[in-house]
Amino acid sequence: MEWTFLIVVFIFINRSADASLSCKFIDTVNITDGFKDSNQNFIYNDEVYPLGTYQEFDYIENHVQVKTSVNPHIRGCVCKLKPCIRFCCHKNSKDCIPSNKLTVDNENEESEVININENKYGILIGRPCEKIYHLTPDDYDDDRWNFLSNGSIFANGAVHDTDDYCLSFNNDTQVVANLCFHQVDDTRFEVYPIGMLISIPFLIITFLVYALIPELRNLHGKCLMCYTLSLTVLYATLSIIQMDKTHLILQTLPCIASGYLLYLSILLTFFWMNAMCYDIWKISSHGISNRSRKEEQNLFSYYCLYAFTTPVLITFAVFMIDHLEIFATDYLPYFGIQRCYITASNKAEAIYVYTLISLIIVANIIFFFDTARRIWKAQSLTNDENIQQRRGVLRNRFYIYLRLFILMGIMWCMESISWMYEGSSEVFYATDIFNCLQGVMIFIVCVCEKRTRNLILKRWCPILADDEEVPHTVDFGIRNEEIKAPRTE
């Protein structure tokens, strides 16, 4: 009984040790000819493998992780010690590496000769995946690739490590790069356009309602129209990019132009939301009273200058960065290379999209909290009917903006989480649907609310309209002394 227990414990410890290896089997090399020193390090070819970077195996794995039993041997995580290069051929192939010197284009677009006998790189043998395809830069410009100093290669607008590429040779010993073929789940790409196409009519209706009803064409209404127009362009562009695979071919002008238009429309949407948040905060904090039509027109001009010009300048700056290539490859947006939009690189997207939008969202949160605090503070300062009415309209506008901001905030949070986890989980299908149907929700928030609905009825169906006065055109101005709490003597 005791022997049985000891055997079970031994097996458990052995498996646990195997699981604790700090790399995958395909990233190991046979180092059996080495030896273990007094510090439990394993020495092979004058290289020291610390404990946890080597392990005894009684099997080998192929590229589809099928195990074959072999004699026990020691394998080490060579890529933990130095950069690695992976070759596609089988380890028993006689001409696996026909030459000890490889001529490749490095990250500086310069020809570089790598001598694999110098022991600068670890050599991994075998395909990293079941299906691969080779790049043919002589035939297609978008198949050009560069070897990076860390052992990865840059191709198709993305960095591929040894888990995703391997090198082979053609008949004249020219180095050929091969990438893993990844099966893409198209479900999300099918859901997105449908949801956005449903949203677009609701956004257009929202825009037309505020454009056709004079009482709604105040500063608030004009900002909301610009916001819905930007979101409409965003949804329309994204739908076209995801649905049109015939004309939007990578590295063509239509593809690149649509990518920049999508980027611009994203910025426009968030900058207009920021302008609206600032406006509601400006009213509550500065106490602007008796806004004239001219003053509102001037303010709208300033908001247009900010919310239209700034995104255009940012987009132009990104365009220049992309074409001048003044930064490292990881930080270049590469529109139209891997996809029409910014390449799916965590660093590039983080800088040009997620960091920028996150800063705008943080600013909006600050505006909203301060506005809510001031509105709550001024709730019961006076019984003057005119002042109370203006505060009521201010609260109404605040709640509309708050709902819009919550919709945009939830969308962006879900999009950010999906981006960080590469959108692989089916959980994100529900959030994708939510994001795509934002147009419907904006219609409900901005058009179906009581005051706007009553204005619509008064204009096109007076019989059904409520006779109660709808204070949409009331002055939003509130003087400083009206919104500040009275001082106690």
TrEMBL record:
The chain crosses the membrane at residues 191-212, 224-241, 261-281, 302-321, 351-369, 398-421, 427-448. One of its GO terms (biological process) is cell surface receptor signaling pathway. Residues 1-19 form the signal peptide. It is found in: Cell membrane. Its main location: membrane. Belongs to the G-protein coupled receptor 2 family. Mth subfamily. This is G-protein coupled receptors family 2 profile 2 domain-containing protein. It comes from Chironomus riparius. The lineage of its organism: Eukaryota, Metazoa, Ecdysozoa, Arthropoda, Hexapoda.
